[in-house]
Design brief:
By secondary structure, the chain is of the alpha/beta class. The protein has 3 domains: about 1-215, no CATH class; about 250-555, Alkaline Phosphatase, subunit A; about 645-805, Tetratricopeptide repeat domain (Serine Threonine Protein Phosphatase 5, Tetratricopeptide repeat, Alpha Horseshoe), CATH 1.25.40.10. The longest helix has about 35 residues, at about 1-35. The radius of gyration is 30 Å and the shape is globular.
Length: about 800
């Protein structure tokens, strides 16, 4: 038996050597893939070299574990242990490459936020890399093939055959000794997060964060049954009103939340400034907070923090989907005063559960890519461009006269950073090329597409403000402009810069511009607005709210009264600001003017902040998991219920593990196979998670229509049109329902309603021709069919009508 084990281990050592070489190839790929995007990082070669040492240590640990496991298989047959090890090592290479690819795309290592996003969301994020994704897939497969080839060669050469049993044991003990050496990369070894992120072994980082996340889940504080731990009395003392002249009516409020607009890119003395001239200029005409922080390091935290001053628990408010606790935001708080709320976003409404969050607050209109007018320019990877978003939104509100709350969330400054305006891009390229040679220029050259997008969005905001200025209610409007978080790909000086954003409050009714240097956060915006409206317009708001911040401070010198947790990513709540102290990754810093950080050694202060962080998270998690955040009862999205048979099918089929798009493919296939039971079960499951997945709702309606249950079909199609008034497919399906019910006039009216938004849609036009023909209006119907014949379009309806009109 000893000989069997020894022989098996010798073979496995050869295979593990091949694995280690290919594991290091992943480091080489990552280094090359990001080299053109990071500029001249000081000591970059040394950072990669140090990272390679950690990669080597991780590979030894992995090899040690697999050798121990597969040597057991060697008792059965040496061949089995070799095949098993090849499979295990190949899988680990695939997983390791995928984790590294996430870093290549986002420049942030995958962490415990993995458990806060769906597979679909992660696929969308990584997919933003565009054409480079195909290259990465090729490289990944090449590395795995190279590993198998090299392993087979080493086995064939039998280099380890001469090892004695003693030497083999020494090799194993040596691997164990290496595993115990202090080769781990530590954050304290680097000046900034980015250098640490480059160096650290990405799978190892994920494992460490996952262990911390699991440990945090078991550390929960228990509260009394009727306790709302974050609900507190609100003192509506105004601090902003003195800066405004009197408004004649309730003011309109407009938010522009700009993707990635960090303070490093705009305002006076911005390290990477000069590409947002309009915002820079506007900041000198506004109430301007130059040292503001986003509550979250990603977009998921911006709407709840800005509109609600809401806590995050582990996933952020929106991350809980239909399980969000009852809460209130500016949207719901202004409804009693006649405000109409509009949310304008050019992207996927389902991403981060934005649609569910807005529905819970009763938003009156939510524009997104699913109901964007078809006449708009083709959308980019993440959605429609900012210019299209703004111009379409202004047309939408053109005739609205009541008080409004307009909220814009932009997209054009998001990966893959493709500037929609080539003229703007050319000007930016010329400007960067004329800069004096410097480290800053190197970074800008390596990531000039980011600065192109910043300039484009800045120009789009300029046009937006000009359009608003032409409205008669412009003088009665307050504009609030901020970034959702700082752009991630451009290197940041320190940990807190990830959150550093500007906050601008502009209005024609401002008495004078003022710059405030006190630290503040997104979550201070709502208290500031409520205090102002209460004091100057007599509005009353709840006496208790779970606000996590006081109002915006008005100190002009650098200072801080903050006492707040920040959430870097989902499942990563490790940052706390208390006064001018900042706790991050278990390290204490002093915040200096300009948001520079200085490491300090004050154990008592550090422990105090750690306890505050722990207490806040305990209270926040309890409030979320037990619906004890706010005593108000908010309207919840009606969910589809499932009977026992549907539950069993969804569970047994594994459908629920798929992303919504893949689920929809399955649902459509089952519908076309006339298996309506399964199709409906899948469609309802999609809609419970993504209520604005309109194609799923339309498919659900069609299965009922095909089954002769027209009233049910009509109900779901009317729901779709209510959610997406411009969605052509919904009108086409509803027209079919009326046609099959012999309600020809209604079928024609439905088509005409759809054509108001989609005048050239072939599906709608073909149904109009069908309805007209049935009503005896053949001349007009013939003209439509003749026009459609000139297009590369054919469906069953046009085929039938062409035969009829021959």
């Amino acid at each position: 038996m000893k000989e069997k084990i020894a022989t098996s281990i010798k073979k496995l050592l050869a295979i593990s050597a091949a694995f280690t070489l290919c594991w290091l190839l992943i480091r080489l790929y990552s280094a090359l893939a990001i080299s053109g995007r990071v500029g001249e990082v000081e000591g970059l070669f040394g950072i990669h070299l140090r990272g390679a040492i950690e990669d080597l240590g991780v590979s030894v640990c992995i090899s040690f574990g697999i050798i121990l496991l597969c040597s057991i298989f060697g008792l059965l047959a040496a061949k089995i242990s070799q095949i098993a090890s090849l499979v295990f090592f190949s899988l680990i290479l695939l997983i390791g490459f995928a984790i590294n690819q996430y870093f290549v795309v986002t420049l942030i290592p995958l962490s415990a936020d993995l458990f806060g996003y769906s597979f679909s969301d992660i696929k969308t994020t990584v997919g933003a890399s565009g054409s480079t994704l195909n290259i990465s897939l090729f490289v990944c497969l090449s590395i795995v093939v190279a590993f198998i080839f090299l392993a087979r060669k080493l086995l064939k050469w039998d280099l380890t055959h001469q090892l004695s049993l003693r030497s083999t044991l020494i090799a194993i003990v040596g691997m164990l000794a290496i595993a115990l050496l202090p080769w781990r990369v530590q954050p304290d070894d680097y000046e900034n997060d980015f250098s640490y992120f480059i160096a650290v072994n990405k799978p190892g980082y994920l494992v460490d964060r996952t262990i911390e996340f699991i440990n945090e889940q078991s550390d929960k504080r228990v509260f009394a049954k009727d306790v709302y731990p974050l609900l507190h009395a609100v003192n509506y003392t105004d601090s902003l009103g003195r800066y405004f002249n009197s408004f004649r009516n309730y003011p309109n409020i407009v938010f522009v939340i700009v993707e990635g607009l960090g303070r490093d890119f705009c305002g006076a003395n911005a390290p990477y400034g000069g590409f947002t001239p309009f915002i820079d200029s506007l900041s000198t005409k506004s109430l301007y907070w130059e040292n503001a922080l986003s509550n979250a390091g990603r977009t998921f935290g911006a709407p709840p923090s800005i509109l609600g001053s809401l806590p995050y628990s582990k996933l952020g408010m929106m991350g809980y989907g239909n399980e969000m606790p009852d809460h209130q935001t500016l949207i719901s708080l202004l409804k009693p005063y006649g405000y109409r709320s509009n949310f304008f976003y050019g992207g996927n409404p389902n991403f981060d559960n934005l649609d569910i969050f807005l529905e819970r607050q009763g938003v009156d209109f939510f524009m997104n890519e699913s109901n964007f007018p078809k006449q708009a320019s083709p959308k980019a990877f993440w959605g429609f461009s900012d210019q299209d978003l703004f111009s379409t939104a202004l047309r939408k509100i053109e005739s609205e006269t009541s008080q409004r709350l307009d909220i814009f969330l932009t997209l054009s400054t998001h990966e893959p950073f493709v500037c929609p305006d080539s003229a703007v891009a050319l000007k930016v390229d010329e400007r960067i090329s004329k800069m004096q040679t410097s480290k800053k220029k190197d970074i800008m050259l390596s990531q000039k597409n980011i600065f192109e997008c910043l300039a484009y969005t800045d120009n789009a905001i300029k046009e937006l403000m000009l359009d608003y200025s032409r409205r008669p209610d412009f003088s009665n409007t307050i504009f609030i402009i901020t970034g959702d978080h700082r752009l991630i790909p451009v290197p940041q000086d320190n940990k807190i810069k990830r959150f550093h954003v500007p906050i601008l409050v502009y209005s024609p009714m401002l008495k004078q511009p003022v710059k405030f240097s006190a630290l503040t956060t997104h979550s201070a915006i709502l208290p500031g607005i409520l205090n102002f409206l209460h004091s100057h317009h007599g509005m009353t708001f709840p006496s208790e709210l779970p606000l996590i911040s006081p109002s915006l401070p008005t100190k002009r010198e650098f200072s801080s009264d903050l006492d707040i947790t920040l959430i870097r990513n989902k499942n990563e709540v490790r940052d706390y600001v208390s006064g001018t102290f900042f706790l991050s990754e278990n390290r204490l810093y002093k915040i200096l003017p300009g948001l520079q950080l200085e490491v300090v050694s004050r154990d008592s202060e550090k422990e105090k902040l750690k306890n505050k962080l722990k207490d806040f998270q305990s209270a926040s998690t309890y409030a979320f998991e037990n619906n004890k955040l706010d005593k108000v009862q908010t309207k919840r999205t009606t969910l589809f219920a499932f009977n026992a048979k549907e539950k069993k099918y969804l569970s047994d089929s594994g459908i629920t593990k798929l992303n919504p798009d893949d689920q929809f493919v399955k649902a459509r296939a089952r519908a076309f196979a006339k298996d309506y039971f399964k199709s409906r079960a899948i469609s309802k499951n999609i809609l419970n998670k993504s209520p604005n997945y309109h194609d799923a709702r339309i498919l659900l309606a069609r299965t009922f229509a095909w089954d002769g249950k027209y009233d049910s079909a009509k109900l779901f199609l009317e729901q779709t049109i209510q959610r997406a008034p411009t969605y052509a497919d919904a009108y086409a399906a509803l027209s079919d329902v009326y046609f099959w019910k012999d309600q020809l006039a209604l079928s024609l009216t439905t088509v005409d309603n759809g054509l108001k938004f989609n005048s050239a849609d072939a599906e709608l036009l073909s149904r109009k021709a069908r309805a007209l023909t049935t009503l005896g209006q053949n001349r007009e119907a013939r003209k439509i069919i003749e026009d459609l014949s000139k297009r590369p379009f054919e469906n069953e309806i046009t085929s039938q009508l062409k035969r009829k009109f021959k």
